[in-house]
Amino acid sequence: MGLSDFVRKAERTINKVGRERKTAKGWRPAITGFSGYGSVDRVHVLGRVLMQDPDDAADTPGTLQEEAQRGWRQFITTQVGDHPVTVRVGDRVVESRTNDNGYIDVLVADHGLLPGWNEVTIEAEGADAVQARVLIVGPSTRIGLVSDIDDTVMVTWLPRAMLAAWNSWVRHTNTRKPVPGMAEFYRELLRNHPGAPVVYLSTGAWNTFETLEAFMATHSLPDGPMLLTDWGPTPTGLFRSGPEHKKVQLRNLFIDFPDITWILVGDDGQHDPLIYGDAVFEHPDRIAGVAIRQLSPGEHVLSHGTATARATIDPEGRMGVPVILGADGHELLENYRENPLPVLEGEDEGAGGAAGAAGGVAGEDTSANEG
């Protein structure tokens, strides 16, 4: 038995014992609805079922008490695996079960929802039903924005383990700082491409989803679905591969939205230049441009131990798409204004149905068909 097999077995055993003990203490399953996404043909409904102490139920997401909690509380969870769930999307009802780690990922076809933000219902045995949001992208949408989170819009200094642990586990969740100028940069990008959906693609853990949503709203970053990951062991290793997660999710976006060309935004503190460069090489017709935030030498040292970037990307556009670089959002915006991305042929600046939803800042009620 390999080390990862041993760790996964130990994790399952610990979680099973913890679930039994918490059930005996009166804890019950509770659903967290993540932000899903889809087209007018099909939609991904995402969520998770964890055990919850009824005494903590009053600490609802968005309250001062919830937002100021120390980050480690987000990671001390007991998941409810192989649990019956029901997803209601419009008139469609789909029965499913959570996976081993309590996650819900249900694909619903022929849902009948209109473009924009909508609400769906997730039910689970023994839990209160919750409403989850899903972004439906209109069929005439031709351009979208994919953004990394850590060190792209939020100062994190990942993946260096101790700093990542300090930022995610120890610091209060409402003390994290935005990367200067990124909200302004995204605001202009979306003003030039109204209707573009925004998708946040990160190696961050799903446990931080509610904190990240609050962060986006607080700092006027655009609202959009998040594609995060689970930090647990896999059949081949102790931790999931961050680069592989991003590559798979990018590929899924290309498949789900065959008519959309994407603007990719990331930073050079991790592997974004390499991942985005590979995407351009493999799918040059699906990438409208790339923007990379360049960390300072000091930030690189804190991030991965050396003063230079771990990966770079050709800034001369020789890969066939425009590439802009900058130390923060202000520099990226300045360079973008000097080298604007072209409006794509057939791009309908007034259509897409998600212009107000994904293109607006988080917290604004601009949805086309919410509820």
From TrEMBL:
One of its GO terms (molecular function) is phosphatidate phosphatase activity. Residues 351-362 have a biased composition (Gly residues). Residues 143-294 form the Phosphatidate phosphatase APP1 catalytic domain. Pfam families: APP1_cat. Residues 343-371 are annotated as: Disordered. InterPro entries: APP1_cat, HAD_sf, Mg2+_PAP. This is DUF2183 domain-containing protein. It comes from Corynebacterium xerosis. The lineage of its organism: Bacteria, Bacillati, Actinomycetota, Actinomycetes, Mycobacteriales.
